[in-house]
Amino acid sequence: MTPTAHVRCGGNGFANPPPAGFFMPAARAMDVTATAEAGMAGNVWLASALWLGLALLASVISIRVAMSVALIEIMVGAVAGNVVGLTITPWVNFLAGFGAILLTFLAGTEIDGQVVRKHLGASVGIGFVSFLAPYLGVLIYARYILEWPWPQAQIAGISMSTTSVAVVYAVMVETGFNKAEIGKIILAGCFVTDLGTVLALGVVFARFDVWLALFGAATAVVLWLLPRFAPWFFNRLGNRVSEPQTKFISLVLMALGGMATVAGSEAVLPAYLVGMALAPAFLRDQELPHRMRIVAFTILTPFYFLKAGSLVEFSAVAASAGLILVFFGLKMVTKIVGILPLTKAFGFAPRDGIYTTLLMSTGLTFGSISALFGLTNHIIDQRQYTILVTAVIGSAVVPTVIAQRWFLPEFKPMVVDKPETKPVQIVEGATHG
């Protein structure tokens, strides 16, 4: 133990270093204070209180200003990360990562097969152009204007090509558009866009080996089995306090996520596909996704969005503000030029078309993943990573704020045939799990 670790603490666990002055030199007081702060940062309960306090603050602000809580959490995280200094610990990474996985899964469960088939051209066309236009635009700019090498230019293009499923789904749930036809189309388009991102990243940079093949085979088997096994399993267990259905889904997501990591991919990638496989079961039983949304939005996704905001370093942003604005502008322009004409071609109302274009212009999860992939594999450097991630985070906030403030469509809930309601069965011993 180092000498500076000997700090007297009261019974409540807080270090109380004496003030600098006659009895203690100022330098010594600074050393002890710094050690006390380090000790508090290592206190998991105090750190948790700080993160959840910021999440509560974001919720209150979002209610007051009538804006998506996900966006407010990103902004609060950015301010706190630069002013207070949020410590990214392994447990924060776990909660944030699982929050992204669960949010992506829940977004997949909202994909209604009937709506997708009805608007297949719009969903696939908008999603494909949403990926291709910014990918090519940013790739060409980075390669021929900035003269970045091809691998770095490709990372830039892939990072800017994404649409944020996490942000879009959070907005859809808060506004109720996850139950409207336009929301289903946008979520399906998000899937197509991010599928293009994943394939581009995989084709260009993935290592094709036995682990990747095993991961692909395991994912295919799970996607085939889940729609057949899960509904029977859920009905067999009944409604219990211990939530075995939620635990089962979490087990599947974590197992596939672990295999994806071993294969050199990302744990969040199979979550959307698992959600789509279970979408029919979730559309029949609205109570289960409701309970899972409560868990996700209460305790998991705040860590994800706060962490995303904390990655923005104001000093680095100031130093590279020009390039950040250029990358952000390129993403916005290419998305708008590519998507907006398609919404008119597919018969969207003008307001609906602009709203769809703006939400398809967001980015966060896969954009950050792509940039981090480039950094950890030494394809891009820290400065390039900061530029790309800041532009990605900016694209999560700006178009979403504009869409919600000025282009929110009229809510038109879907008209569906309600299934026959079955009487609720009270399982004996349900209160004991």
How would you explain this protein's 3D organization?
The chain has 433 residues and is mainly alpha-helical. It has a single domain, classed as Na+/H+ antiporter like fold (Up-down Bundle), CATH 1.20.1530.20. The chain is 73% helix and 0% strand. The chain is built from 18 helices and no strands. The protein has helices at residues 26-41, 44-65, 69-83, 90-109, 113-118, 120-145, 150-160, 165-175, 181-205, 210-237, 244-262, 269-284, 287-310, 314-319, 321-345, 350-360, 365-376, 382-406. Helix 3 packs parallel to helix 13 (287-310), helix 4 packs across helix 11 (244-262) and helix 8 (165-175) runs antiparallel to helix 9 (181-205). The model is unreliable at 1-30 and 415-433 (pLDDT under 50).
Helix content: over 70%
Could you tell me the CATH topology label. Na+/H+ antiporter like fold
Low-confidence stretches: 1-30, 415-433
Helix-strand string: HHHHHHHHHHHHHHHHHH
The average pLDDT value, as a whole number, equals: 83
CATH class placement: Mainly Alpha
Question: How many domains is the backbone divided into?
Answer: 1
Biggest β-sheet strands, sense, barrel: none
Strand content: under 5%
The end-to-end span amounts to 46 Å
The backbone outline, from C-alpha atoms, is globular
Corresponding CATH architecture: Up-down Bundle
